[in-house]
């Protein structure tokens, strides 16, 4: 249903869309850039990082697709990388190691994201900003606050990429019920860390049922902790990079489809009035201005209602942490 192959998203004419990847030389940035290079939706691919991007760009530029690729390195080239971008994807930051939570990354990644957001607000204030850098529950509010301070904030254009939670939910539900994972779609709401990740298995398409409460709880917890599963399996060698690149590419393609006026729906962590917290992930209809319509929660099961109430304190604290960081450090 949501295959990332460029050909699945090809159109009759090339969309003149520049995509900037900030953190392009990293573990997520390189495979993400490879998937973007393949797409006919991308005309210009700008790769930025603090080091090694010229080599990554040279490597990708040899691929025989129509998009052009250019590498940018260092703070003095960041503006050029961003200028004219339709979409900015931010996988920059340090990865998790065994024993770390996403929140443990806050002090390092918060500064990185804030500085990149300052540059984006200056050089491409109308771009759609897709934030992968963790902890997403805090980095999205950071970007929002930076854009507010720059006087260019538009809540419809800033997204936290939670797509990997959906990809994992689709995969695990498909495995549990012997289904084609590409034919499964499970909405995931809330945030992007631990218990703030709430898969709405009751709304799965095709419809699946789990009459055993213990099985449903186990599946939900696995989806919530799947990132730690990868971190532990890599034993200090990194976090989820390949699956995150896949999910990030899928989300970027959906943003580009929306820019072209084509139908596109993705779950994303955005400014929201759907619940009592100011940012929340729900299914979002995408359009030329970014968020076209917030599709809300849908009908929740009793199990999901309890999980929803339980996630609010942690999510609210993470959002507040991001807002306060900008207030103290901008």
From TrEMBL:
Residue ranges of domain Lactate/malate dehydrogenase C-terminal in the record: 162-326
InterPro entries: L-lactate/malate_DH, Lactate/malate_DH_C, Lactate/malate_DH_N, Lactate_DH/Glyco_Ohase_4_C, Malate_DH_AS, Malate_DH_type1, NAD(P)-bd_dom_sf
Cited PROSITE patterns: MDH
Active site positions, chain numbering: 192 (proton acceptor)
Gene3D superfamilies: Lactate dehydrogenase/glycoside hydrolase, family 4, C-terminal, NAD(P)-binding Rossmann-like Domain
GO cellular component, one term: mitochondrion
Domain annotation Lactate/malate dehydrogenase N-terminal: ranges: 18-160
Keyword ATP-binding assigned: no
Keywords: NAD, Oxidoreductase, Tricarboxylic acid cycle
Keyword Oxidoreductase included in the entry's annotation: yes
MF annotations from Gene Ontology: L-malate dehydrogenase (NAD+) activity
GO biological process: malate metabolic process; tricarboxylic acid cycle
Catalytic reaction list: (S)-malate + NAD(+) = oxaloacetate + NADH + H(+)
EC number: 1.1.1.37
Residues noted as binding substrate in the record, renumbered to the chain: 96, 102, 134, 168
Binding sites annotated in the UniProt record for NAD(+): 23-29, 49, 109, 132-134, 244
Subunit-structure text: Homodimer.
Family, similarity comment: Belongs to the LDH/MDH superfamily. MDH type 1 family.
Protein name according to UniProt: Malate dehydrogenase
